[in-house]
Amino acid sequence: MSLLTVLAGSPALAQNTTSTPDQSSLGDYARKVHKDPAAKAKPKVYDNDNLPTDDKLSVVGAPAAVGDNASADAKSADAAKPEDEQTKKQAEWKGWQDKLSSQKNSIDLASRELDVLQKEYQLRAAAMYADAGNRMRNAAQWDKEDADYKQKIADKQKAMDDAKQKLDQMQEEARKAGVPAAMREP
Questions:
Q1: What is the Cα–Cα distance from 50 to 41, expressed in whole angstroms?
Q2: For residues 124 and 146, what is the distance between their CA atoms, to the nearest angstrom?
């Protein structure tokens, strides 16, 4: 029992010990750094609000000529230019998006037409093969209609494949033109 009390008291004794004088706490270090004036010196940070308009940021290169009106006019034209350029890009991107959307709509339409044509063919074939007498009497007519339907289905499939290929080409052209991916694939 006495051994238990000695063992239970030793962690409490270890917690009550104070740090040695050569060790400092984190708070002491923070106060020392806060009082240090060299730590307060921060480099000048430029942003859009405090950019100088009449001075250069870089010290490399030749200084600007005093009284150079052409460069001042060029600077004011450059300030208006990015907005116009961005508007033109947005309009061009919107045009690409409309073209791609139109092509996707034509693919969807061709796909639906192909599905309808295939279902019609399946219904006609099921009706023809269900009645053996009709099949015997109208074999020549069925062969002709069968060939026509198969040709129509093949033509629709080819048209849809061509439209898909054209869409892929348009998307690649749009990518090369710098259209963002979100606008290329709605």
A1: 19
A2: 9
Region label for 13, one of left (φ > 0), alpha (ψ between -120 and 50) or beta (otherwise) = alpha
Q: Is the separation of the CB atoms in 148 and 121 below 8 Å?
A: no
Distance CA 107, CA 90 (A): 26
pTM above 0.90, yes or no: no
- Total Cβ atoms within 10 A of residue 53: 5
% helix, strand, coil for the chain, step of 5: 75, 0, 25
Task: Encode the chain (186 residues) as per-residue pLDDT tens digits.
Answer: 555 555 555 555 445 445 445 567 888 887 877 777 665 566 677 777 777 677 665 555 555 555 545 454 555 555 557 788 888 888 888 888 898 899 999 999 999 999 999 999 999 888 888 888 877 888 888 889 889 999 999 999 999 999 999 999 998 888 888 888 887 775
Q: What is the residue extent of each domain of the chain?
A: 112-186
> Which two structure tokens, joined as six digits, stand for 179?
């259209």
**Contacts of residue 178, Cβ cutoff 8 Å, sequence gap at least 6:** 89
For every residue of 41-74, DSSP letters joined together read -------TTS--SSS-S--SSPPPPTT-HHHHHH
> Smallest Cα–Cα separation from 146: which of 127, 168, 133, 173?
127
